[in-house]
Amino acid sequence: MTANEKAKAKTEQAVGKTKETVGEAVGNERLTAEGRAEQAKGDAREAKEKIKDVGEDIVHP
Q: Which letter, b or e, does each residue of 35-61 get, where b requires 16 or more Cβ atoms within 10 Å of its Cβ?
């Protein structure tokens, strides 16, 4: 996983969790949903990079 993509994934996950927590605390459903969506985006980016890493390990053992 490239360091840049890994950092983006972790940042999206952290920002998303923060938005979700704040949204729940203040009762803002839109912000809560936005946070969950951003976390999912970070999770997907991380999964994509892990798959690329596995592919590289298979091609170049």
A: beebbebbeebbeebeeeeeeeeeeee
Confidence of residue 59 (pLDDT cuts 50, 70, 90): confident
Contact between 15 and 38 under an 8 Å Cβ cutoff? The reply is yes
Task: Report if pTM > 0.85.
Answer: no
* Cα–Cα distance, 26 to 7 (Å, whole number): 28
- Distance in Å from the first CA to the final CA of the chain: 16
- Dist CA 24 CA 8 (whole Å): 24
Nearest alpha-carbon partner for 36 in 50, 49, 23, 26: 23
